[in-house]
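Predict the assembly for these two chains.
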Amino acid sequence: MRIALVAPSCPLKREASDRLEAIAAARGDFELLVNPQCFLADGHFAGPDEARLGALREVMGDPSIDAVWFARGGYGSNRIAEAAVIDVPAAAQNKLYMGYSDAGFLLAGLHKAGLDVAWGPMPQDVLRAGGELAVNRALDWLVRRDPDTLEPALDGPAMAFNLTVLSNLLGTSLEPDFTGVDLLIEDLSEQLYRIDRSMFHVTASAAIQSVRRIRLGRVLDVLPNDTDFGADEADIVEQWCNRSGIAFGGRADIGHDVLNRVVPFERKNR
Amino acid sequence: MRIALVAPSCPLKREASDRLEAIAAARGDFELLVNPQCFLADGHFAGPDEARLGALREVMGDPSIDAVWFARGGYGSNRIAEAAVIDVPAAAQNKLYMGYSDAGFLLAGLHKAGLDVAWGPMPQDVLRAGGELAVNRALDWLVRRDPDTLEPALDGPAMAFNLTVLSNLLGTSLEPDFTGVDLLIEDLSEQLYRIDRSMFHVTASAAIQSVRRIRLGRVLDVLPNDTDFGADEADIVEQWCNRSGIAFGGRADIGHDVLNRVVPFERKNR
């Protein structure tokens, strides 16, 4: 079992990589291949678009690699996601791709291209307090598809996205087919008025209105408003679901924290 | 000439209203009607959706009113904009609607409904240093269509939007027909990575790809990134224009400041 790390958004910290190497050695059930691109830096990004795309295409096309694990979020995977799925190499089919947050742009594009993707913790999560719990959960899915890693109330096809990322991929070529899925959303470091605005945008989409239901993960590190917004995140999401005729399925166990669970997307070409 | 103030987003400050009353008295060329809804407060908003919608519909339907001036931005006009343009009263046709920033959701919806709208300064701008300049510019357009108030390089049909607002109205029922227009954009209080992400989203839209060109107003109060982003706002906008095949028309004289110019939208039903 060989797991490759690439960084389609921002650079991976050396300390995270070192701790992953130690976890790999201790577990002994997989081989970790940290692509050197993970440590490039070009302004905000883990190297220029060409380098990030090149590393991703390299591991996609390598038949010896079983899983591609996105090193961390931040911002930038959208800049290479469309190019990543042009003329997908045959070897890309037989692997699993995992990440969350900004990596959602890639999850969407790769899923749409018929590849096997899952929302789940990322290598840099190891730096959170208790972060080994998160990366081991991801590894337990990547290595042996342990059902205990899954979001506990999954029931049929599902997808998971950061709400702001989801809002920014609607109408782009990355937009997947949401028909009939449980759509799990979460967000981080936004004011509640932005959550409300994103829910307005997302629930107005006919594509989103085709979901089975929306379930709400954690909305963490909410930034202060000038005045109290007057509703909490669950009120906001339920209200926009009601306004748009989408079923609201309650809370979900995902978020930008060490408890973040795995949500495999259903592959459409199965 | 009667100008009505309503607040479809956040409450107007009393001090702004007082200063507007003084300006109206000094100018003597219009009558100011400050709808009491402007001072309501309900959490983040200038009263509940019903009150904000009710005040807007009241002034839209009042044949004695010549212009509707949105009191300020903030957030919230999207929550009432779709309802505002259902069964538009006949009296709504013979007026001009002005605002910017969050009011862009309404400008879009009202324009799409065939009404006369313009991007321009709002009453609460009077509280900025030098703010009388801004509100008098707006009034010079509202009262006497003074061409000196216009964005100086307007050349054919144009629209202006806050970039983040524009991103959030794409794909909703408020999305207007952008075909052939000069699209002026600006933004405020965002990190550059968010500007880049919004440009990705906006320029991926087929509707936006129908514009004549994009021109960039001011991007003010840029919030810091962890690391320097590596490109400035003009680089970002020009790059996404290039990637999407949209012409980039250079800078525009709009923004969240007292120099913000007027941009009338072309009315489609003329």
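Strands of chain B lie at 2-6, 31-34, 67-70, 96-99, 116-119, 158-162, 182-188, 213-220, 248-251, 263-264. Chain B has a mean pLDDT of 96.
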